[in-house]
């Protein structure tokens, strides 16, 4: 055809990070500076039908968030990307298949700690995309006295649940930390969040 082809994008990967599913890539070696990228995806429900992703057409960045693009979170999908510059374009490069439900990587929740007299109310907020809020996200909460390794565990709280802890018998500096959890085939967990510490029943 005599067409000069653009270098194809490299390291095309469907990554799950912090509850999202994102296609990432790096520019092909020797790409011109003004290159743009276009992304499509395919689901195992309908193989050989590559579906357009309107918010990732002719973009300059090297990633595309596909979390709420996939109509079914329980089916394997893959994506592909090509480079475009003027009338030249690269070949498509495909990612591997991933399934949101099985492959999702969790971020730690953010704890909101409300200290009242004789009680602490704790709830967790999650950086979730709207389309995945309905899944059964849980969190596990740990409470311990600062400096101690003995942790009291409150496991399997639903995402919207508030954990109420009676602090009548607690005195001194106490810390709380939580991790997200999610059951697909087995339980997945995030890392624990940075501890939030509070001073309880301080007479002074």
TrEMBL record:
CDD domains: FN3 (cd00063). One of its GO terms (cellular component) is plasma membrane. GO terms for molecular function: cytokine receptor activity. Pfam families: Interfer-bind, Tissue_fac. Residues 8-103 form the Fibronectin type-III domain. PANTHER family: INTERFERON LAMBDA RECEPTOR 1 (PTHR20859:SF55), INTERFERON/INTERLEUKIN RECEPTOR (PTHR20859). This is INLR1 protein. It comes from Syrrhaptes paradoxus (Pallas's sandgrouse).
């Amino acid at each position: 055809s005599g067409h000069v082809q653009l270098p194809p994008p490299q390291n095309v990967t469907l990554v799950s990070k912090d509850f999202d599913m994102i296609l990432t890539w790096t520019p092909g070696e020797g790409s011109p500076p003004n290159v743009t990228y276009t992304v499509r995806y395919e689901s195992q429900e309908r193989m050989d039908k590559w579906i357009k992703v309107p918010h990732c057409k002719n973009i300059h960045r090297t990633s595309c968030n596909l979390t709420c693009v996939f109509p079914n979170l329980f089916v394997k999908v893959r994506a592909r990307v090509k480079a475009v510059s003027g009338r030249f374009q690269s070949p498509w490069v495909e990612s591997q298949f991933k399934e949101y439900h099985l492959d999702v990587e969790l971020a730690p929740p953010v704890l909101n700690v409300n200290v009242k007299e004789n009680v602490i109310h704790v709830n967790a907020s999650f950086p979730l995309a709207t389309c995945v809020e309905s899944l059964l996200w849980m969190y596990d909460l740990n409470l311990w006295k600062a400096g101690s390794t003995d942790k009291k565990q409150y496991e399997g709280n639903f995402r919207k649940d508030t954990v109420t802890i009676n602090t009548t018998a607690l005195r001194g500096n106490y810390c709380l930390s939580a991790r997200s959890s999610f059951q697909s085939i087995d339980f997945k967990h995030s890392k624990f969040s940075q501890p939030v510490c509070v001073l309880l029943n301080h007479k002074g």
